[in-house]
From TrEMBL:
GO molecular function: ATP binding; L-serine ammonia-lyase activity; magnesium ion binding; pyridoxal phosphate binding; serine racemase activity; threonine racemase activity
Ranges where the Tryptophan synthase beta chain-like PALP domain occurs: 20-308
Pfam family, one: PALP
Single GO BP term: D-serine biosynthetic process
Keyword Lyase: yes
Coiled-coil features, chain-numbered ranges: none
Protein name: Threonine dehydratase
Lineage top rank: taxon: Bacteria
Cofactor: pyridoxal 5'-phosphate
CDD domains: Thr-dehyd
Organism annotation: Salegentibacter flavus
Length: 318
């Protein structure tokens, strides 16, 4: 896959991080003695649940918009998303004073539609299939001249997502491993590249549910695999890898660990109860992976990206 000629350099990666800093929060890195004891490893949680719009996706949305020409910015941006990226693009666009057109499936949670509206995104509702979402977004691009932003398979978005790992490695440069959940692959690809550039002998690992283990299978087969079903509580991880992020994952990710649904729920509950912070099920997948494979992480210094905290409080799994 001949994408590496476009790869960002370490210096460009640092510059991109500097550019987005005024528009994002530098999120805290938290630690829990009790969770370290339970997991048998020292974990440093990079808490992107405290990011603007409640998830790491604010980083990628901001990076992508800042990368547009003045002329393109004036016409605005469009994306299709059922949740976190929709909110991130709406808020990033509002911060930078440009229009945001958001295509959302009719099945998207009301709480997420309301958040997009609060952030000033102009919503178009469509049937909940990928084909319908793509067609609706294309129509808006044709009508408005707005630029399409992909939630996980666009290089400037991927690099933006990787800045969470840059910040974590600035604070803890001696991490042995950095683990993140994987759905569409944007966060994992950006993190893996950041680990390669800014880590010291640090491995990057992905975590995903058995119910949607397309990334695990893709890494094994060498081609992008799909999921027959998406029966997981981790609603942010139901999408699949793309041709921009997969080569980065192939090159820089050492492995992907799969977890069961009950392990995700337990990990989520432990973080809520012991750390007193709200994390969404998708975020808990990385912690679940460490609990499942304790031997692999024992005695290691482990970094973990808590990807988001946008939870439907009326529909908790515990």
């Amino acid at each position: 896959m001949p994408l590496f000629h476009k790869m960002i350099s370490k210096r460009e990666f640092q510059k991109l991080h500097e550019n987005i800093k005024p528009h994002i929060h530098r999120t805290p890195v938290m630690n829990s003695h009790l969770l370290n004891e339970i997991a048998g490893t020292e974990i440093f949680f990079k808490c992107e649940n405290f990011q603007r719009a409640g998830a790491f996706k604010m980083r990628g949305a901001t990076a992508a918009i800042l990368n547009l020409s003045e002329e393109a910015r004036e016409k605005g941006v469009v994306t299709h998303s059922s949740g976190n990226f929709a909110q991130a693009v709406s808020l990033a666009a509002k911060s930078l004073g440009i229009p945001a057109y958001i295509v959302m499936p009719s099945s998207a949670p009301e709480v997420k539609k309301a958040a997009v509206q609060n952030y000033g995104g102009k919503i178009t509702i469509c049937p909940p299939t990928i084909k319908d979402r793509e067609e609706a977004a294309e129509k808006i691009v044709k009508e408005t001249g707005a630029t399409f932003l992909h939630p996980s398979n666009q290089l400037d978005v991927i690099y933006g997502q990787g800045t969470a790992a840059i910040e974590l490695l600035e604070e803890h440069p001696d991490l042995d491993v950095l683990i993140t959940p994987v759905g569409g692959g944007g966060l994992l690809a950006g993190t893996a590249l950041a680990v390669d550039y800014f880590g010291k002998n640090c491995k990057c690992i992905g975590a995903e549910p058995f119910e949607v283990d397309d990334a695990y299978r893709s890494l094994k087969s060498g081609k992008i695999e799909t999921n027959e079903t998406t029966n997981t509580i981790a609603d942010g991880l139901k999408t699949q890898l793309g041709d921009k992020n997969f080569p980065l994952i192939q090159k820089y990710v050492s492995e992907i660990i799969r977890v069961e649904e009950d392990e995700i729920i337990l990990a989520m509950r432990l973080i809520w109860e012991r750390m007193k912070i709200i994390v969404e099920p998708s975020s808990a997948v990385a912690f679940a992976a460490v609990l499942r494979e304790k031997k692999k992480f024992r005695g290691k210094k482990t970094g973990m990206i808590i990807s988001g905290g946008n939870v439907d409080l009326s529909n908790l799994p515990f």
